[in-house]
Write a structure and sequence with these properties.
162 residues, mainly beta, Immunoglobulin-like, 7-stranded mixed beta sheet, 3-stranded antiparallel beta sheet, 2% helix
Length: 162
């Protein structure tokens, strides 16, 4: 009889199955946008006497400013005033003190006016995409002034995501 040694070995090879699956990831960036349309983005009050006032409603419909939400989300609009340039007047809550003027805004076609300040104030709590908001302004010139040239009163409208 033959004696032998038989070696039995088990050789294994790891086999892995590969499968893939795709994932589509999309994102839309918020587009916060505001544009001044319909009118030219400027108001010309004309020449006014000391201590007098005038609104954009008195000037005519071409000086009411219209703001439209040109973004793709609902926004909040805020508004801020400034001291004038040219003939320098300080923005104040009341006239009566030399070289202090009052600039006011209305978001309800003159139903009520709110004095502008050096801080942002709420113009509109929410404005939807594509919606237009009328903004009227009123200026009250100083009761006395150290200059009698053109004063330019800046107003800025800020759009923010809600």
């Amino acid at each position: 009889m033959l004696a032998g040694l038989v070696f039995f070995g088990l050789i294994t090879k790891m086999v892995r199955a590969a499968t893939t699956a795709g994932v589509a990831a999309t994102v839309t960036v918020q587009n916060i946008g505001v544009a001044t349309t319909v009118s030219d983005g400027s108001v010309t009050y004309g020449t006014l006497g000391l201590g007098t006032s005038k609104t954009t409603l008195e000037i005519g419909s071409t000086d009411t400013e219209f703001v439209i939400n040109t973004g793709n989300i609902t926004e909040k609009l805020s508004i801020i005033g400034a001291n004038t340039t040219g003939c320098i007047w300080g923005l104040g809550a009341a006239t009566g003190v030399g070289d202090t003027y009052v600039h006011q805004f209305s978001a309800n076609r003159g139903g009520s006016f709110t004095p502008l300040t050096h801080s942002y104030l709420e113009l509109v709590a929410t404005i939807g995409v594509g919606i237009t908001q009328a903004v009227d302004l009123m200026i009250k010139v100083p009761t006395s002034s150290s200059c009698y040239t053109t004063a330019t009163a800046g107003v800025t409208i800020l759009a923010e995501a809600i």
